[in-house]
């Protein structure tokens, strides 16, 4: 079993630094995924992370205590007008479509058009939020 590390990777597209916590094997599996959502840079790509990320293999950091999904959601709710998971999104909004990594939706209660951003938690859960 190999050690869990905090890997840093520079995104070649936006220049932001993405971080991934896990073993080297988990990192490689992540890099081989078929699409890529750059959390720090907020862009969505149809090629895998390996195409975009330049991992700093020589200087992995020590693992950190990552927030749970509940903590991430609670934090989003304090910072944004609205936040929720995919199910909550469907209850509150009618999704019109996605463009440039943002979600365009209409609030069911008011009919207002809103543009939501989203992010992934360390556990891979997607949360939408309304800036
Ligand atoms: Zn990026």
Cα distance, first to last residue? 41 Å
Derived from helix and strand composition plus strand pairing, the structural class reads: alpha+beta
* Unreliable residue stretches: none
Helix segment tally: 4
Q: How much is the radius of gyration in Å?
A: 16 Å
Chain-averaged pLDDT: 94
Bulk shape: globular
Query: What proportion strand?
Result: 35-45%
Quick overview:
By secondary structure, this protein is of the alpha+beta class. It has helices at 24-31, 49-52, 69-79, 86-92; strands at 5-11, 17-22, 36-38, 43-45, 53-55, 82-85, 93-99, 102-107, 113-120, 126-130. The model has no long low-confidence stretch (mean pLDDT 94).
Q: Could you outline the blueprint of secondary structure elements for this entry?
A:
Elements: E1 5-11, E2 17-22, H1 24-31, E3 36-38, E4 43-45, H2 49-52, E5 53-55, H3 69-79, E6 82-85, H4 86-92, E7 93-99, E8 102-107, E9 113-120, E10 126-130
Antiparallel strand pairs: 1-2, 1-5, 3-4, 6-10, 7-8, 8-9, 9-10
Key structural traits:
binds zinc ion, globular, alpha+beta, 10 strands, 23% helix, three-stranded antiparallel beta sheet, 2 domains, 131 residues
